[in-house]
Each structure stands twice: as C-alpha cells, then as structure tokens.
Request: fold
Amino acid sequence: MDNPLYSVAQIRAIEQAAQAQLPPGTLMQRAGEAASTYALEVLGGLPNGRILVLAGPGNNGGDALEVAANLANFGANVDVVHLAGAAPSPETQHAFARAQASRARFIDGVEAGDGACLVVDGLFGIGLSRPLDGRARELVERVGTMTCPVLALDVPSGLDADTGAIIGPDGVAVRATHTITFLGNKPGLYTGDGCDHAGRVHVNRLGTASMHGEHARARLNRPALFAGLLAPRMRNSHKGTFGDVAVLGGARGMAGAGILAARAALYAGAGRVFVAAVDTAPAYDPPQPEIMFRDAAGFAFEGRTVVAGPGLGDSAGATHLLGKVIDGTGPLLVDADALNLCAASPDLATRLAAHEGPTVLTPHPLEAARLLGVTAAIVQADRLEHARELAQRTDAVVVLKGAGSIVARPDGEVALNATGNPGLATGGTGDVLAGLIGTLLSQGWPAWEAALAAVWLHGAAADRLVAGGVGPIGLTAGELPRAIRAELNALVSDAEQT
Reply:
C-alpha cells in the first residue's frame, strides 16, 4: 500500500514483532539516533543555543533521554526536564543513565518565553489515554509561549495518534513545528487537530520495514492512487466523449452555489454542463456562458452525472427532485442541502443507499452528524471511524470534509488528504469540490478514484493560489476552478511523461 497509516494497535503489533527479533533496547536506541539526526537537520547543524528536551515517564521519555544524551555527546548545550515514572522500563532506565552520564543538564522546569533554540517533546507518545494535567500540562503550556522550533517524538504530546483529536474535553497538546514518527505513519497526524499540531512529519521505521505484516486500512492521499486515470485527451474526441454534468440546485437566493459547482465541472473538463434550477434560473452566467441553465422540473437527468445539493434548499419540490435523481441509475454526487434532506427523510436515505450508479457523498462534520444521528463534536472526535460508518451505511464513497479531509469507502478503506490550507474555510468551496467530483464521474472515473483525485486537486489548487500570493485570507471559492484546471493539466502532463 502506498503511504500507509497505521493505528496504534497496529503500531504496537509491529513493535512487538520487532522486539522479538532484536536485542533489548534496540528500538529505543534507534529512535534516539534517528531523532537526534533529524533535530540537527531541523536546526541546520550543531547550534550555538540551548536545546530543551522534555522527557516523560514512559518509553517516549526514554526516546527523549536518548536524544538528550546523543545531542550532548555531539557537543550541543542540552537541558532536560524529566518527569520520572514509578516503574520505568529497563530501556528507559538505561536511557536515563546515558543522559545523566552525558553533558546534558537536568533542570526542574521551564519559564514562560524560555530562550531555547529547539524544544524536543518526548513527554508522552501513542499510549496516552487521558488529558494532560499537572506538571505535564504546565510544561506544554509553557512551550506554547516559545517561538523556537518544536520537534515532537512519535506524536505531539496530548494528541490522539488514531483520531487527530486533542485528548480530553479540556485537553492541551504540544503544537510542534516538526514531528518524527516511529515504526509507521499515524492518521492522527493528518486530520483534525493533528493538522495544526504535528507540523512537518518525518517517518522513520527504525529498520522494521520487513516486519510490517499488518494491513493498514488508511493511507495518505497521493496522485499515485489515481494516476492510472490521468490520460491525455485523444485528438479524435468531442464534447460527448467527456460526459454531461447536471447540477441540481439553484433555489431562490442560492443560485451562486449551483454556478460555482458548474464552473468547477466546466474547468475540470466536462463535455457539457447544466444547472437544473429548482427556482427561476438566470438566463446565463456572464463569466461562463458555456454553462446551460434549465428548469429542473422538466429536465432529463437520466444519462447524465448529477451533482445534487448546491443551493438546493428544502422545499417540497426540491425533495421530490432529489428523490427522482436518487432513483435514477447514473453517477450521483450528493452534497449540502441534498444531504440534509436525506438526513431528515428515512425514505430518501434508504433509497440513496440503494442507488444503482456510482455514488459519492461530501458532508462537512455537521451534515455527517445529521446523517448518523449524532453531534458534530462526536464526529470530530473520531473522524476516520465516522467516515467509515457513513460510507458503510450509505454504500457510497464518502468525503468527510474539514482539516485533513477523509475519503472513505464501504469496505472500511480510508485515505487522508494533506493538500489544502485555511483559505478553503469560506463559503462556496464545497460547491466547487462537488462540481469537480461530478466532472470526473462524468468522464468515467470510478467513485473512489474520482473522490481521491478531486479532494487532492481541490486542496492543491488552494495551495497554488496561496503560493502565488492569493490568500489564504480572502481566498474565494470562485478563484479555485482556474487553479484546479492548472493542477489537473499538470498532473496529466506528468503522467504522460512517466
């Protein structure tokens, strides 16, 4: 599997398999060596300033003590704050002895605004199951006042490695600029709070690659996952070759949502694009007169890919039209108001799960919560599992939007997306994503690959805009389609040359 992400349980199994084949303490020593080397890379070499190492009571603290000993032996000025445990492992005891025997200096605490040039966070790793409190919480809060780089070992302390949520209702977590994660990559580093707390992630398997016998049910979304569908267009083709996309939406006061979805479909290469409006449609879209507007009540949806939901509203007419497209057989993208109508109607939800064509749902956390009958906070507490559950219930590919969007399919496989930035946190960007997925479906892409590619492209387009000085503050949804077109053509060009 490309770019696998392992659960804590799977990491534990990999660790146990490795420990059964290696001399005691080998993994901790390798982790210390890898993190010490990476710390110097982060700093650009041996620093003149002071490195602060926070070492907790468990094996993550043992890794940190190894780092302290190594860096001190290299000649760095190292201070260590050690939270001793009642029953440390033999490996951690050995690491503590090494650190004590080195030039590292053990200190009692950290002052606000401490002037270290690097903080190494080894307080708690993947085994933490309760909110940080007491001295550990105080240390994390103090680190939050510092402006230097922060390197987390394995996972930022206080962050759930499986879910990406900060542990506890009133929990805190280290906000790292860099994370070196051991044995295998973890999903919690790429979604939810993990997006803001993990920083740049570096994976080191500590020489255990041959021991990864467990199947990872999650992966990072990358173009390699859909590269086989990135084909250059044949010269002997026409608009019918690339399918029709019909956006069902456009209720009064919300016509813009349907237009945004339609523009995205147009710029991503659909042969023809329609907006089937539930209320009076505009005559045309002046910036994009290629988009055709129709009255939804008399529109022939069959044989076209339908993007249902952008600006659909909740009228009886909208509900009837949604039922009509759900009962059809073509590719179907369900977004926004269409998701809410399905959540409010058990009949529509049942019919949606039975839809015969390829189906993709694109809820944000509140929409997903309505479909699952829970709260948005519950969904956010474990984004992966709720995306999986919704995909299984609806027998559809689900894109759970948000920081680190998750693409899930009914068999439990998920992919986490790392492209994108806060510029996407504005009205209309979800409509653009819906239109983008719709156009890939119209071109014959399977639902899984269409969702993966669209989510990646959507985020990459926002990154392209920010890199060019547009946003993230003030980036608008209407700016995305052109950037998506550029990203898509670049991917196709790259695929053609490989």
Q: What stands out?
A: The CA atoms of residues 34 and 204 lie 7 Å apart. The mean pLDDT is 95.
